[in-house]
Amino acid sequence: MSRKTIKTGDENEKHTKVKKHKTKKRKTLKVIAIVFIMAISLFVFFIYTAQDTPLIQTLNKYVPLKPNITVVKKQSISDIEDQCYKISYDIIVKYFLNKNAFLPVQEAEEYAAYVIKHAQYYDLDPFIVAAIIGKESTVDFMARSKVAHGLMQINWNVHKDNILKSFGSRVKTLRDIYYPSTNILIGCWIFSDCMNKANNKLSSALSKYYGTKSDGYINTILSDYSEMASLFYRKVSNIIKHTN
Questions:
Q1: How far apart are the first and last CA of the chain?
Q2: What contacts 164, CB < 8 A, 6 or more positions away?
Q3: Using CA of residue 218, residue 143, residue 133, residue 155, what is the dihedral sign?
Q4: Percent of the chain beyond pLDDT 90?
Q5: Each residue of 48-85: pLDDT tens digit?
Q6: Per-residue CA distances from 166 to 49, 129, 135, 173, 203 (Å)
Q7: Can you list the positions of beta strands (E) in the chain?
Q8: Per the confidence metrics, is the pTM higher than 0.85?
Q9: Angle CA(185)–CA(191)–CA(196) in degrees, nearest 5?
Q10: Strand, helix or coil for residue 73
């Protein structure tokens, strides 16, 4: 005759808690998977919408289309997000320092924080914004040409009226757009408009931002972007792989 094990109230409660914990963990893993799938899909979308540039073959060769995702057991979504932010931040800081050997580390860190903040606000890839800064000004906040000014080389003559209309609370004169945070904010605003007008094709948007089509300009920015994006995905893949 077999005997049935009778569970006490404490055992039942413990069993219920374990079951709820497993259910919660499965839901967390599902959300994390969805977040990364969306990120990968967005990246692939940019790759395919950039097909009118000769650099696309280089991008496909060196940039992984997806990280090696394995099951995450111990880290919460917020932990992953924090690490992704830190990875992006560190990559951009290093990129800025490589672009400008005379740039103080503190300023590179400040600019990187502005890039991530303002790019996120305008739904832009921060690595693209960083690459534009690297090409346009070599990360010199006082950079200027006959018509362009600051880190993102804002064309004051072209955009003056719209800038004063949209950013009148913080921009009163040309001098104000030299402040790094303001310059990056306005640059992201302009590039976001370029992306919309170019139907999210990076090469076309870059041509609009530059003011004319230039393969050299486009290829330099996309090359720097691909290196930063590739490094980001490798590091994120490594984090996920080691959280089993």
A1: 43
A2: 171, 172
A3: negative
A4: 61
A5: 444 444 444 444 443 433 433 344 444 556 777 888 89
A6: 29, 20, 26, 13, 26
A7: 148-149, 154-155
A8: no
A9: 130
A10: coil
